[in-house]
Amino acid sequence: MQQSGFSSTPITRTLLYTLLATSLLSSLTSTKPYFHLQIHPHLILQHQFSRLATFQSIYANSGELLFGLLLLYNLRQIERLFGSRKFLSLLLYTYAVTSVVTPVLLFVGWTVTGGRWNYLPPGPTPLLFALLAQYHAAVPGTYKFSILLPGGAGELGGSDKVYTYLLATQLAACQLPGSLVAAAVGWVVGYAWRLDLLPRTRWRVAGSVVSMLGGEVEGREFEGLRRRLREGEGGDEQNGSGERPIVWRVLDQFRGR
């Protein structure tokens, strides 16, 4: 059954409110210029390497903030699917990786263009697109539709997920080319995490930290399935089968084992 609001998504709720608060606070205190990234002078001359850890903590303008919050709200299903522990582990892992990869690409672009591209807008766009990669791969559409093209040219199909993709497209196009590069990095890192192409992708944050934030270690989506599997486990043992059932192996993928 589809759940509404922030039900069973405490990490998403905390992240959304934190992003809103930090963005508004930076605007009220006139500290927004301290969050974007420039190779020159911020990193080369002034050695402000702290920006590498903070450039994803705010959005600098109201348009990006609006689209970012709406996109994050639409991606809350990932936490329900993964469980709060795996979801928080995904957030921390991709935040760390994208905070390194994105500035490296900015440096490469700055070098190749002779300094003409020297700006990376602030905001957790890489993080959101890493979540979007999970949404694309794991969340099925609720319904599908078709749009007839004029002149009998055929029809264009889609699903209810298209609205989420439209939000993501608008966010990626807000401050070109930096916002597009950030989005691409997040998408690639998200899929690399999902396919275990990066080191230590099975790392999980401590369960006590998740419980402190009010989250659940495993997603509710699989509670009924797990219960049914446990009820049938005795029958499998009586049959003397030593092979682990395929449904258990699929479930382990979502549990991060």
Question: Overview of this structure, please?
Answer:
The protein is about 60% helix and about 5% strand. The chain is mostly helical. The chain has a two-stranded antiparallel sheet. The longest helix is centred in the middle third of the chain and has 29 residues, at about 85-110. The relative contact order is 0.14. The model has no long low-confidence stretch (mean pLDDT about 85).
What is the distance, rounded to the nearest whole angstrom, between the alpha carbons of the first and last residues?
26 Å
| Beta-strand share of residues | under 5%
Helix content: 55-70%
Largest sheet, described in full? 2 strands, antiparallel
Task: Report low-confidence residues grouped into runs of 5 or more.
Answer: none
How are the strands ordered across the major sheet? 1-2
- One letter per element, helices H and strands E, the order comes to HHHHHHHEEHHHHH
Tally of contiguous helical segments? 12
Radius of gyration: 21 Å
Global mean pLDDT: 85
Shape: globular
Strand element count: 2
The assigned structural class equals mainly alpha
